[in-house]
Design goal:
By secondary structure, the protein is α/β, with parallel strands linked by helices. It is built from 15 helices and 19 strands. The structure holds ligand C2E and calcium ion (2 copies).
Amino acid sequence: MRLKSLTHHWSKRSNRVRLGIFSVALLPQFLLFFLGYFHTIFNEKQNLRTVLELGDRQMSSLMRAAEITLEDVKSHLTNDLDETSINESHVRRLQKIVYEDPRFREIGIVNQDGYLYLTNLGVIEPPVLLSESNRSDPLREEMQIIGPVTTTVMQEQSVIFALPTEDQGEVNLLVNPVILNYWLGLNSLNLGPDGYIAYVLDSDQEIIAGTGLLPRNGVLSSQTPDRSRIQLERRLEASDITIVVDVSKAWVLGKWIDFWKFGIPLSIASSLLIALFGSRFFPPQKSLEGDIPRALFNDEFRLHYQPVVDMETGSCIGCEALIRWQHTDRGLLFPGVFIPVAEETKLIVKLGDWIIQKAIEDLYELLIEHPYLYLSINLSPIQLVSGNDSRRIVNHLKKYHQISKNLIFEITENILIEDNQTNIPKALLDIQDQGAKIALDDFGTGHSGISYLSKLKVDYLKIDRRFITDGELPVHATSLLEGMIDLGRRLQVTLVAEGVETEFQKQGLLKKGVRYGQGYLWAKPMPIEEFHQFLATHSQEVQLPSQDMKLLP
Ligand code: C2E
Ligand code: CA
Ligand code: CA
């Protein structure tokens, strides 16, 4: 029942792996998505700045044209003119100007008393008095823009370009606001449902041209900055006009989301594909972790034993238990494939239990004929990290206390150092308290086994097979090996060389003072039955690997 729920738990875990890949695959796309947001806002601002720049150019050119026209009218018509001397030729002259430039609707001339008396439409008889608000300030010299106002004569909305004359009258040009928008290129702008662009007179905030959601009264109330909107303005040079543009960020983002309407499903789909295919790349891990509880239940794990030999006499003094998995679909699996998975999933604790139990059972059998034999069991640090887990090992030892002296627990040097702060050192001491021994595995490959050696009395050092070669070792490796051998001797720790494959290697090690070895030179790891046979021919002269190795009671 418990195994079943474990299997279920780990299949859920493999879904989590997929979810992990999915999230990781999605991450850059989310980043792009967020970057896209800022990029869109930035881009929109750039676009609007271009719009303002263009608007500036359009208005400036329009004002120049108006100014030239008005100067022309002023110099040719007002000097020699008064209400009494005007005639049809003057009207035609004005008409010609208006026809020549389609931007202008009407040209008028106003006397110093504010009476409009001549336009391109004809002589105004009697002259019409213009209201103050429709007139330029006669005290200023430059052209002024007024408007939009409803003209007195035609009763139409117009923007007025007015140039005062020396006699304090004015000449003016009327422009239809619709035409003005058109000429300024405003009609083609898309600024969203509540965006607008406006040419505003600085003096009274009156809007002389613009498009979008403009205030009905034609006056732009002073703007308070709004973070939900993009608001930009540009003051036109040598005029009292500012162009203001204002669009909603939500609308800009809407355009961006429109783009992502395809982008988001597309990116999620591609991440899903990556997650699906990605998890295919790790099938052993994916299925193995789910398989371990089942394999324990179905008894698919095996322990093989590799002899440890006294290299001087050739007799077998012990063995190392090495796990194998007779997988129903995948055949024989080696620990390198599934131990990391078991460690990652913490299933190693359960598997470790089985290993210890099985090794002890086998050891009982072996001790019947070979009472001096010792047996090594590899421990994963995961089995020692928590007090609860390490207590399981101690409990095994308590239960089988008669043989605990024949047991060695191997632990790799690297992990010990890294986990110096954890329960591991205490767990190892507890194990030693039960009479079992501790071996430092893969010695010479870690960072600093020495610092650990000062804290705990290790019983065995297993010299890593990287130091065992037929050829010359690199100089630093040779001195390391000699250092390790020297250290072993000083600390009275038994040295075992791993991975001895040739007679030459064996002789070299013996010469250096290493007495015990393990490797293909004698045998590969083998099932217990074969190991019994091996012992039958290799156990004549038993040598104890260390002084405190006692006979079984
Ligand atoms: P290890 O503890 O260093 O085990 C020695 C490895 O070297 C074994 O590989 C063994 O088959 C191999 N070997 C022995 N003699 C020679 C030789 O002369 N030449 C060469 N090239 N190789 C040799 P194996 O059985 O594949 O085990 C690999 C590792 O898996 C072990 O390294 C150990 O760290 C781990 N492992 C094995 N069994 C267990 C176990 O029951 N529990 C745990 N936690 N780990 C285990
Ligand atoms: Ca080992
Ligand atoms: Ca080793």
